[in-house]
Write a structure and sequence with these properties.
Elements: E1 3-7, H1 61-66, E2 70-74, H2 83-87, E3 93-96, H3 106-111, E4 117-120, H4 130-136, E5 139-142, H5 148-163, H6 166-174, H7 180-184, E6 194-198, H8 202-211, E7 217-221, H9 228-234, E8 236-238, H10 242-246, E9 251-254, H11 268-271, E10 278-282, H12 291-300, E11 303-308, E12 328-330, H13 339-357, E13 367-370, E14 373-374, H14 376-381
Parallel strand pairs: 1-2, 1-3, 3-4, 4-5, 6-7, 6-9, 7-8, 9-10, 10-11, 11-12
Antiparallel strand pairs: 5-13, 13-14
Bound molecules: NADPH dihydro-nicotinamide-adenine-dinucleotide phosphate (NDP).
Residues 122-124, 147-148, 151, 198-204, 222-224, 255-258, 261-262, 283-285, 309-310, 333, 335-336, 380-381 line the site of NADPH dihydro-nicotinamide-adenine-dinucleotide phosphate (NDP).
């Protein structure tokens, strides 16, 4: 029987919810492109409930314990004295979410002698040292597509929020003001602007599709070009280089995975290619950007705004400059963990566990590393190596 260690974010400060704002979720049958939603044999939770926090337990306890497995759930994940560090030593499976990532560094993988499966309940397994997983033969899997559309909605919201100056205007209302000039002195329309995405995968393409009705000019850069029919239908301009795209865009959004090739791809040098006053939205991974270069570009006016929900490390320490830099619209890492998304990735986590315990192949589209190499989706979208360096800084965070 296996030991499954699951790291989840804390419950709300007022306690686990006893009621919800809405009674149901819309029914979605398949993802764009035809991939089916998760297909576990059963689930033991009510769709639309809070599953991603520690009391929600991803709805897995009944299933795991009925099958004789030990199930440990904790939010205490950082530092050598954390529960995670202790429980990891004899874990067979580690489940973690990118929103509150249990960093699986090479040192931790070396300590976890029994570890066979690192399962990401969500998308993005950069919190796992993929090179160490490859070397040790640990399988890495994630629930591909579960929250791609959720994130694309967040990107559109953030682009509109920044360009239209929503957050500062909202704050004037809360402060009791009616300061129209203060609100609009930085407010524009997106209509006619040029927007470009770095990567047009599931999220990037969904963002482009959603922005088309706003009559924006749409651009993308990616390692592989989209089919000509898609380019024509959306009126897309493809750029061979990221810098070439930055030079013509008013808004840039990052939608590629973090791996050694993409780490810090936005830095002082590459920011020079942006139009002065461009907006940058990053819901992909914090480490795609050089933290201090972003703050400097906002202070100098090279960027007019920066928004996103991803940071490095996570949780971000209290003194992280992105909390206080000007003209930002940051949230904690939430875009992919709406209640709608949680329902899908909890079901996907269960599907992957069922396959793993019943010795059936895990869907190719869920695989990142398998059999000592990048596999499935991982072989297409990631490069081997490690992007977890510096993650120990997450131990500096203290909850308020
Ligand atoms: P996909 O795998 O569908 O898309 C990723 C795209 O990135 C692919 O088209 C890939 O290209 C492209 N890509 C990879 N490397 C580069 C590069 N060096 N330059 C340009 N393009 C590159 O993934 P999703 O769209 O579903 O998710 C993208 C990322 O978003 C995830 O990896 C994750 O980090 C983040 N994410 C964030 C969430 C949140 O809650 N904020 C939730 C979900 C995801 P190709 O395949 O053509 O090689």
């Amino acid at each position: 029987m296996a030991k499954v260690v699951c790291v989840l974010y804390d419950d709300p400060i007022d306690g686990y919810p006893t009621s919800y704002a809405r009674d149901d979720l819309p029914k979605i049958d398949h993802y764009p492109g035809g991939q089916t939603l998760p297909t576990p044999k059963a689930v033991d939770f009510k769709p639309g409930t809070l599953l991603g926090s520690i009391s929600g337990e991803l709805g897995l306890r009944k299933y795991l314990e009925a099958n004789g497995h030990t199930f440990v759930v904790t939010s205490d994940k950082d530092g050598p004295d954390s529960v995670f560090e202790r429980e990891l030593v004899d874990a067979d499976v580690v489940i973690s979410q990118p929103f509150w990532p249990a960093y699986l560094t090479a040192e931790r993988i070396a300590k976890a002698k029994n570890l066979k499966l690192a399962l990401t309940a969500g998308i993005g397994s950069d919190h796992v040292d993929l090179q160490a997983a490859i070397d040790r033969g640990v399988t890495v899997a994630e629930v591909t597509y579960c929250n791609s559309i959720s994130v694309s909605e967040h990107v559109v919201m953030m682009i509109l929020g920044l360009v239209r100056n929503y957050i500062p205007s909202y704050q004037w209302v809360v402060k009791g003001g009616w300061n129209i000039a203060d609100c609009v002195a930085r407010s524009y329309d997106v209509e006619g602007m040029h927007v470009g995405t770095v990567a047009a995968g599931r999220i990037g393409l969904a963002v482009l599709k959603r922005l088309k009705p706003f009559d924006m000019h749409l651009h993308y850069t990616d390692r592989h070009r989209l089919p000509e029919t898609v380019e024509k239908e959306l009126g897309l301009t493809w750029h061979a280089t990221r810098e070439g795209m930055y030079e013509v865009c008013d808004v840039v959004t990052l939608n590629c995975p973090l791996h050694p090739e993409t780490e810090h791809m936005i830095n002082d040098e590459t920011l020079k290619h942006f139009k002065r006053g461009a907006y940058l939205v990053n819901t992909a991974r914090g480490k795609l950007c050089d933290r201090d270069a972003i703050a400097r570009a906002l202070e100098s006016g090279q960027l007019a705004g920066y928004a996103g929900d991803v940071w490095f490390p996570q949780p971000a320490p209290k003194d992280h400059p992105w909390r206080t830099m000007p003209h930002h619209g940051m949230t904690p890492h939430i875009s992919g963990t709406s209640l709608s998304a949680q329902t899908r990735y909890a079901a996907g986590t269960r599907e992957i566990l069922e396959s793993f315990f019943e010795d059936r192949p895990i869907r190719d589209e869920y695989l990142i590393v398998d059999g000592g190499k990048l596999a499935g989706t991982g072989a297409h979208s990631y490069s081997a190596g490690n992007a977890t360096g510096g993650s120990e800084e997450a131990a500096k965070f203290k909850r308020t």
